[in-house]
Amino acid sequence: MSQSFWESETMVETQPEQGQDQAASTTALALSVDDFAALEERVLRAVELVKKERQAHAEADERCARFESELHEQKAHAEQWEKEVTTLRAERDHVRQRVERLLAQLDALEL
């Protein structure tokens, strides 16, 4: 006769050897069932925790990818702004030189 581990254990624990042993055996069986239920509950909580952590990790990965994309965008904008600032400074220097030449010509006329 083929029995699973749990069936054979249950049968062994529920078979009374003596009158008092039957009560002790039933208590032991009840404790083992309670222990098993507690273990099952802990495993289920652990599974839920792992699911939540995986979801949080996936969300963090998505946010990280989004932030990296935004960073690359901002970096491109920053480089463009740096070029524009450099161009504007060069134009300012050119205008300053022209103004200085004009002022010099005006000074020369006043003499």
Query: How many structural domains are formed by the residues?
Result: 1
The main sheet comes to:
none
Class from helix and strand fractions? mainly alpha
Distance between the termini: 128 Å
The ordered H/E elements are: HH
Mean pLDDT: 83
Strand content: under 5%
Shape: rod-shaped
- Low-pLDDT parts are 1-14
Radius of gyration: 42 Å
Please, could you describe this protein's structure?
With about 110 residues, the protein is mostly helical. It is about 90% helix and about 0% strand. It has one domain (about 5-110). It has helices spanning about 5-15, 20-110. The chain starts with a helix and ends with a helix.
Q: Which structural traits does this protein have?
A:
111 residues
Task: Give the SSE map.
Layout: H1 5-14, H2 19-110
Outline of the structure:
The protein is mainly α and 111 residues long. The chain has helices at 5-14, 19-110.
